[in-house]
Design brief:
With 462 residues, this protein is of the alpha/beta class. The protein has 3 domains: 67 residues, Chemotaxis Receptor Methyltransferase Cher, domain 1 (Orthogonal Bundle); 214 residues, Rossmann fold (3-Layer(aba) Sandwich); 145 residues, no CATH class. 51% of the residues lie in helices and 11% in strands. The chain is built from 15 helices and 10 strands. A 7-stranded mixed sheet has the order 6-2-1-7-8-10-9. Strands 3-5-4 form a 3-stranded antiparallel sheet. Helix 2 runs antiparallel to helix 4 and helix 5 packs across helix 6. The relative contact order is 0.11. S-adenosylmethionine binds next to loops. The site of S-adenosylmethionine has 25 residues, from loops.
């Protein structure tokens, strides 16, 4: 029977070490993943066991570059251009509004932050959208920043070269305008102008010293990173993000993220269906008290004794082949389902949102008689209800992503198991990993707050 590389005590120590560095909480259910990733780095540094590797990380003078490599290994970097198109569509609407408002005020300045931007696809997407909206109008001071804890990801973001897979959702006009296809047609490089439009920096969201100066952002995207943190780290980051926004600024979370039970600092809007929230225009301090929980200290939580579960045992040939075929089939099925859902649902939600916006404008019309105004308000409420029901479908979309994430984990374990079983005849590493989503566990939405609760409906309508 196969054993873990890290014994129970060393696993607990690594769990605490990673947590303190990043906020990422490797719970017992993800132990095998942490074990595989630490083992990979330990072997690369010629260490035979976990305690020696940990000692090296904590004491060696040349450890910083190895710490960076470990952080890189233990975090999930899955991202792509125009990821979650529904959210990008809402961003387009909001940026339109901000541009109009700033033009009128004669203050042509917009500040956007993509926090935890991985290899840069998200901030570059935002930069492209803003640029299209401005259509070459001069006199604007647009600042778009991308940050991530992983210095490797930031270096890659600065290089501005991306795989076919990562540009797969980019609409054609953007692809031909802002990218050049490399000689190797599987890669695309950003035009120099676009590459220079985003500033990157390697910082950690849980390090106050690194985030304190980040202020006055109109919009902050912080998608698909909080899901890896425990509640203590999530609250800390949400409070920091609140401070980083201007009053009335927008926070955009990933579709699997949730504020539920974490903070009352953010206001819901009609776009909260898509995880857009507002720092209230008149708020001066974050309101975390109501959502406070009595958390243990981060380290104490992370090192709590882990029950010892056996790791998956090494696989024989027929098992690995069957799994490989299953993974391929499942991935293809889920991908098709996901595309169908995205197409039909996205369009319907967009159409309904547009009608509600029009209704809301009509209701403001001063010449409207009270009866018509009441009727329009009634219709608007009905449509908002419809939007909430459509959101259930949007959740289904998230579930399909969660399934794909599980597949990724399965694939990771399979490859790990193969490395542990040199007597395997069939090389499963030859399996085309591109068929799978890369290292993406992020729809692991155990915190799904079921936004259809009565509280949420009340919050929307009252
Ligand atoms: C899945 S990617 C999200 C990329 C992008 N926001 C998106 O949704 O497409 C998560 C990123 O969070 C970064 N990350 C993890 N912990 C972090 C921390 N404490 N501070 C900053 N970034 C962190 C990882 O390095 C990784 O690149």
């Amino acid at each position: 029977m196969q054993t873990y590389f890290l014994d129970d005590q060393t696993f607990a120590q690594f769990r605490a070490y990673i947590y303190d560095l990043t906020g990422i909480d490797y719970t017992e259910s993800k132990r095998y993943l942490l074990d595989t990733r630490v083992r990979r780095r330990a072997r690369e540094t010629n260490m035979d066991d976990g305690p020696s590797y940990l000692n090296f990380l904590q004491t060696s003078a040349e450890n910083q570059s190895e710490i960076d490599l470990l952080i890189d290994q233990v975090s999930t970097h899955e991202t792509s251009f125009f990821r979650h198109t529904n959210q990008i569509a809402i961003f387009e609407k909001i940026i339109d509004e901000i541009i109009d408002e700033r033009r009128m005020a004669g203050n042509k300045r917009i500040k956007i932050w993509s926090a935890a931007c991985s290899t840069g696809e998200e901030p570059y997407t935002l930069a492209m959208v803003v640029r299209e909206k401005l259509g070459g109008e001069t006199g604007w001071d647009i600042s778009i920043e991308g940050t991530d804890i992983s210095s490797g990801s930031i270096a890659q973001a600065r290089r501005g070269r991306f795989s076919e897979r990562n540009v797969r959702s980019t609409p054609e006009p953007y692809l031909s305008k802002y990218f050049r296809q490399d000689k190797d047609p599987r890669f695309y490089t950003l035009t120099p102008d676009m590459a220079n439009s985003v500033k990157f920096e390697a910082i950690s969201l849980i390090d106050n010293a690194q985030t304190n100066a980040r202020r006055d952002f109109d919009i902050v995207f912080c998608r698909n990173v909080l899901i890896y943190f425990d509640d203590v780290a999530k609250k800390k980051v949400l409070e920091m993000l609140w401070k980083s926004l201007v009053p009335g600024g927008h926070l955009v979370l990933g579709t699997s993220d949730s504020l539920h039970g974490l903070t009352d600092s953010f206001q819901r809007t009609q776009h909260s269906v898509f995880n857009f929230f507002l720092r209230a225009p008149d708020s001066t301090v974050p309101n975390t008290a109501a959502a406070a929980t009595q958390g243990t200290t981060p380290t104490a939580r992370a090192v709590e004794a882990a029950p010892s579960l056996p790791p998956p045992s090494a696989l024989d040939n027929s098992q690995s082949l069957q799994l490989k075929i299953l993974i391929e089939r499942l991935d293809r099925g889920i991908r098709d389902l996901s595309e169908d859902l995205n197409n039909s649902l996205g369009k319907t939600i967009d159409a309904v949102s547009t009608v509600t916006t029009t209704l809301e404008t009509l209701v403001q019309n001063e010449n409207l008689d009270p009866k018509s105004r009441a009727e329009l308000r009634g219709a608007d409420r009905q449509l908002m209800r419809i939007l909430l029901f459509l959101q259930v479908g949007d959740r289904t979309q998230q579930k399909t992503e969660a399934l794909r994430a599980t597949l990724q984990e399965l694939s990771d374990n399979l490859l790990g198991a193969e490395k542990e079983a040199p007597d395997l005849q069939v090389s499963i590493t030859s399996f085309d990993k591109n068929l799978l989503p890369q290292d993406d566990e992020e729809s692991d939405d155990e915190d799904d707050d079921g936004t259809m609760s009565q509280d949420d409906i009340d919050a929307l309508f009252n």
